[in-house]
């Protein structure tokens, strides 16, 4: 999928749209993405700051999507685990920027070359307008090369003919 289309789809995905989350940039090579969370009356918590679930949600799919797109169709990629640490109350517009370096992609390819699983942690900070860290998010991504399906593998039997 083209990065520009993904950006639009995610910005209008109900989970993001109704939380006030906007995907403002995804580079064509999936090496960089930028996400904003604007504070609104409907996404504040009891004490008037950003709801923690929205802070985590704004970071949720990006590492997995970026790794999947950079590696290509020969790999299985999904989120394995996630952690968030709240550093200070979030107010106003907060931003998360994701950078996936070529060297990291190559490292994952090499680690997955033998067909085994690779578990890789990625970090991103959510920062406010003043550049102060509001939350630190870690996501663990699972990667494995897809197993080749042998050309001579028998087709599944028709259940009606058993």
Question: Could you characterize what this model shows?
Answer:
This protein has 162 residues and is α+β, with helices and mostly antiparallel strands. It contains five helices and six strands, in the order ααββααββαββ. It has a six-stranded antiparallel sheet. It is elongated and about 55 Å long.
Q: What would the average pLDDT be, to the nearest integer?
A: 91
Distance between the termini: 41 Å
Could you tell me the strand content as a percent range?
A: 25-35%
List the uncertain runs: none
> Which class do the helix and strand fractions yield?
alpha+beta
Q: Rg, please?
A: 19 Å
Instruction: Tally the helices.
Output: 5
Q: What profile does the largest beta sheet have? A: 6 strands, antiparallel
List key phrases describing it.
162 residues; alpha+beta; six-stranded antiparallel sheet; 5 helices
Write the layout of secondary structure elements.
Blueprint: H1 3-11, H2 14-17, E1 21-26, E2 32-37, H3 52-57, H4 62-71, E3 75-86, E4 94-99, H5 102-112, E5 118-127, E6 133-145
Antiparallel strand pairs: 1-2, 2-4, 3-6, 4-5, 5-6
